[in-house]
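Hi there, hope your week has been kind to you so far. It would help a lot if you went through both lines with me. No rush at all, and the record is pasted right below:

***
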Amino acid sequence: MAINDSGTRNQYTATAGQTVFPYTFEIFDKDDIKVQQKVYLTGVTTTLTEGTHYTVSGVDNDAGGNVTLITGAAVSDTITLSRDMALERLTDYQNSGDFLAAEVNSEEDRQWAAIQQIDSKASIGIRPTIDDPILNSTNTELAAPSIRAGKALGFTTTGVLDYLSGTMPVGTFRSYSTLAALVADVANTTIGDTVYLEERSTGNGGGAWWKVVDATTVTENEYDIVTGDATRSFQLVKEYPVKTSQLGIPANYTNQTSSLVSFFDTLGEGTDDLDYYEIPFNTIWDRTTVLASLPIGVTLFDNSGFDYNTAGETVKKFGLADFGSASGSHDMHWSIESSHHPIIELNNHGNAGSTSAALRRSSLLISAGNLQKSGGRLGFRGAAIHQYTKSNTSNYWQWQLRSLAPWVSVNGQYERWITSESVSSGDYRVNGNSHYVAASTGTTGATAPTHTSGTVSDGGVDWTYLDSSDRTIYVIDERGRIGLNASPESNTLELVTSQLDPNSNFNASFKARGASSSASLSLTPTNSGSAAAVQPFLRAQDGVGLRVMNSAGATELMSFGDTKGVSVKEFAMQHTVAADLDATPSVAGVGTLILSNTGATTVTGLDDGDDNQIVRIITTNANTSFTHSSTFMLQGSINVTTPAAYSSITMQKIPTSISSRWVEVARSIK
């Protein structure tokens, strides 16, 4: 067989669970191949063991074979296969012994395979090209230790490999593990050098570039300028944003609030040409305290993932922040731009086991500063929240706007209610789901306010209820239903007057726009075939008034005006047939009363009438008479006895506040 020039190494990126990986070079024993696996998730590389982690096929095959993992690789793991045979001779030919072609070929193959293995490793080393003049003049043997001590192996200005002097040439850089290591090596630095710190201090992060500068031109401040010796100092090379860990403030999961305040207190407002700092991940800090010390014009990029306070509460927070006066601060503008489709995604995976996860809640929160006085329990001062969530009662989503505090509480810088706190009348507090304002001055008692109306004492201070700390303003759901101050569970549109509205009456106004435009209100049901069944509708028009139009909108059925009252095209009164032989029939909701008594009946009054109600009474036979009385007053105070069929008498009820009686206003006796 022959040794192919196919290389001595194969490398693969595994798919999930992959076990078989081909190698394309010849091996003579299953131990002549090295198998390495780099785990994608950890970055750790492990040399695997044959028989324990994998098996090999294709030994003595000049085309190679397969390595089969016993446990499949994870997705994106890197599998590297390389020839790794021992460089030794295994065959010894004897005088007058057999000289077989197979044995000779095998030994020759092993020699060439060994040469390929050595060449493969040599080819990845640093080496000059064959025509490089450095090969003509450079001695690559190491000098004696006394000669090379304290020197760097490098290239001279002419490109010759040599031992360089004890200090790095100006403009070059070297790497140090920490700032302390750099200061300790100051003697081996030159003004103009650029050096890199892997960490500001051990375990605290803050890797950055530093410049060696003239110590007489700068002043040490412990953050970005550090003294090396009498002539050399080290100055941080600032890059936007500057990480606070680069300034010596550790990002090591400890509270750095006081260190951050100390640093920002050293900055002059508006004097630093670099106004953008990053709070790196794992820096614990109290946002309210630090922002209070932030100079005007300085912006923070919060990448810490923490907001810390003295009660030990933490909230995962990221974002931008600045603090300043109206004249010194500026708008905070976060822009996402695209020439196609900019998107903001709020993605709730729903697997946290919480109520918010189960309802897939995602929110846009509006806050008005941070709470500061509430026994160390800080957090945001919520004002309002826009939220996507599943309905609490049904299987559909809702988009909600909810109030977290009334304006008077927000404007009054409300805090959480706590016991034994000195408060003044007019101070605002929140407790549980309610906002309150102090109605007296004093020290809070032991009984937290929980009432939802009126004024109640906590044992030391009187508190007046203001509003809920989580009240729905509007809801739009996936069914297209809308609710204002209500959840539209059963109504397509449900509007309720807010409890904060001083006018508890419900008023709705619809206004047209432009010249001589009308305003209409149309209600359209559907018929049994699900088709729209158009109906008469209301139309308001200048100079005409409010009109009821027929379904086509061409004919006025009724109109109302400020001066003319009501005009009706047709008027039909609802009628009912009175109970047989009833002397005082009911006229509840009736305009026309039909009397069809089967025997002689005398009507002496009407029951269930309303003030000012007008009732037309029609007889269909001559069996009915009417008797005059003080509460049923007939024309001329004269009884009407058995009038002919289809005679009519019209009665109107005088308002009860004047005189509770029926009075005849018209008749037609046949």
